[in-house]
Amino acid sequence: MPELRKDPVVGRWVIVASERAQRPNDYRPAAPATRSGPCAFCEGHEGTTPQEILAIRPRGGPRDSKGWHARVVPNKFPALRIEGELNRRGEGLYDLMNGVGAHEVVIEAPQHLLSITELPVSGVRNVLWLFRERMADLKRDQRFAYAMVFKNQGEAAGASMEHSHSQIIVTPIVPLLVEEEMRGAKKYHEFRDRCLFCDIVEQEVRQQERLVLEDKNFVAIEPFASRFAFETWILPRPHLGRFEETPDDLLGELAQVLRTTLRRIESALAAPAYNMVIHTTPFSTASAPYYHWHIEIIPRITRVAGFEWGSGFYINTVPPEEAAKFLREVQES
Questions:
Q1: Residue 290 CB contacts under 8 Å (≥ 6 apart), including other chains
Q2: C-alpha closest to that of 228 among 171, 284, 157, 292
Q3: Cα–Cα dist 160/207, whole Å
Q4: Of these residues, 103, 163, 165, 292, which one is catalytic?
């Protein structure tokens, strides 16, 4: 029997209809990985990218030279540009402003790697450290309200370069989905005087049904009202509202949990394309004890079609309990 499940954060309803699907282990896209490098992101080609913003260089050296482990550069074709003023204005009933923001690329390794999971844990930590440092720096710009860190892995997820990389887009407004999460979490906090995300973590650890893995300070779960098959969230167990304030001593543990989670997804689903995003408290929100940063991973193994676009419902063909069990038992490649 299909189920309708309500997302406790944003109030969105999801249809879980397992009868429409194959078995979980049949979701194995047949898109073989290629390795055609070197490319503009590879070590030795630093002059082909825009000028370096930040890099991890254990042995020092000038920017835009060899010897880096991970580096950040401006996007060559930015969605938003950092120069200029917002100039908010109206045209009749329409609101608009200049496309001011920031758009940066985090190149995750000097070698031509296809996946962040090919890095050691220390390499994944480097990437997370760059995320944190760039968010903290961009937060100082009073024009900006929000930083979205995201990763498009694979062509089907929107990646235009196969060399493993992530992106940061900083906007002068808070994205609507984040606003919806903030609104739902605030309403829950006002009613119960507790953080909704902290309660989700506590319940999922206690019940174990949708738990993929747990560590001292982080958990990976399949959300109760997952929009997509094998949608996976990583959340800190202590209450942490802002990713850019994550302490150094937690970044290594997070790197291990993220790497393990992604390796399990890659093994279970034959290295699918996926999107990964970090949702965090907006820069423009002074204090939000009700919100909890988290990472969302969406494997691109099913398609959003007419019903979803027209209704706002999502149809998930793999119950999160089945997906979690499968990911718990899968052997990492």
A1: 182, 185, 186, 188, 189, 190, 195, 196
A2: 157
A3: 40
A4: 165
Average pLDDT score over residue span 279-291: 92
Residues 303-319: b if buried by 16+ CB within 10 A, e if exposed:
eeeeeeeeeeebbbbbb
Give the Å distances, CA to CA, from 110 to 55, 132, 143, 154.
11, 20, 33, 18
Is 239 an active-site residue? Answer: no
Helix 121-138, helix 248-269: angle, nearest 10: 120
How would you class 112 by CB atoms within 10 Å of its CB: exposed for 0-12, middle for 13-18, buried for 19 or more? middle
Helix (H, G, I), strand (E, B) or coil at 190: helix
Q: How far apart are CA 218 and CA 235, in angstroms?
A: 6
Structure tokens belonging to residue 95: 């609101």
Q: Contact 170/144 with Cβ under 8 angstroms?
A: yes
DSSP for 62-95 reads: -TTSS--SEEEEE-SS-SSBSSS----EEETTEE
> Could you give all domains of the chain from N- to C-terminal order, each with its CATH number?
3-23+40-75+113-329 (3.30.428.10)
Is pLDDT above 60 for 32? no
163: pLDDT strictly greater than 80: yes
